[in-house]
Design goal:
This protein is of the alpha/beta class and 444 residues long. The chain has 3 domains: 103 residues, 2-Layer Sandwich (Nucleotidyltransferase, domain 5); 99 residues, no CATH class; 155 residues, no CATH class. Helix content is 56%, strand content 10%. It has a 5-stranded mixed beta sheet, sandwiched between helices. The model has no long low-confidence stretch (mean pLDDT 86).
Length: 444
Amino acid sequence: MKILALDLGKFNSVACFFNSKTRKPKFLTTPTNREHIASIFKSAKADLVVMEACGPSGWINDLAQSFGLETLVCSTNEEAWRWANVKRKTDRDDALKLARMAAMGELKAVHTPSPQHREFRSLVKYRKTLDQRINKTKNTIRAWFVNHGIEIASGEKAWYTGREKINSFRKPLVECDADELWKGELDIELTILDSLTEQLDGVVKKLEAIGKTDERVRRVQTIPGVGPRTAEILVACIDDPHRFDNGRQVSAYFGLVPRQYQSGETDRNGRITKRGNPLARTILVECAWASLRYNPWAKGVYERICGKQKTRKKKAAIALARKLAVIAWALLRDERDWNPAQMIAVTKSYDGKLPIDEAELAAMPKKECRHKRKRRLAKEAKASKEAKSSQTTGRKQALATENRSTSSNQPSAATRSTRTQRPTKRTSQTRNRPPRARKPVTPA
């Protein structure tokens, strides 16, 4: 078996031609560009092309497959690839080790997405990069105002209603004096902030346009509490759901499973492994916290794991994030939308216990998009406002009617005055009554 092992570098790469029968290697150093790599693939009659997973491995793998060569992109995070207790490590040693381990079948292949999916994944990651740059710029601007003892609005108000106050301090750097150079720096940073915000809006619009045509993104968004940004990241990371055999592999792929140390009678679990894409893991935990407001099932899972203990809140959130990742993978694998009835049937199939009442779970409404939700909330707010105004109007009318009826039943002021001045009528018994005798007073 002829193996071509490539140790890829940023500028130069080392190719190792290895024959598994003779066990003799041949090395060639070549620049890492399409022309030289393509010439090697043309001249080399290799049965297998092996390379490590890195930045250039995507287009080199596509180039090798275009020549009809079988490829193997291996993971360098496995135990077999770790270098330990070696006296020398060079690019030739790396290429030779790749070839020998491929001949023994000790290398584990990684999933290589298609060129279109790699571009989509790159755009999703770039959106987060722009968001981080905007936050860094805002923090820099806030630091200048704090260092000069000037108060600005806190939170997002500073960049909307409080932007006029911030703009009042900006000045071109050329016009700044020696004691106000920070105003020129502020002008530059505000220009960068406006440009980054505009570019971020363009990236988000492009992602939303892709999400409307991608059925996978729409399907993941049917989970209550999962928004478009989370759905995009999950679809970008999972790609082909059939490459995972079960939910445990999905959990391990996102690094949401505990570390394990087992030796003899000792079996200890530690913190989560944090392997895989850190952006996906972060957004899953944020989505877990947000789903507590919109998903009764997620809230039931959280309360069951948390057990009303303050020390278990973060653990419950991470456990809920793992469940959301597995559910998203299952929806993509089965090509189904979120359905509470399906969850009830699956839970009953293995005698599991539902986190909330079955009737409450079955009565969960379908998730609505944010535009429909805004329109529905606006209609509800308008209806409640009209109901309150009608109630207030009815109360005022009833009060006015009551006041009119009360005033008609009561006598007028002149009548009341004549009644008070009218003398009391004396009866015949009162006139003929003899005077009361006085009690004699005895002297002391």
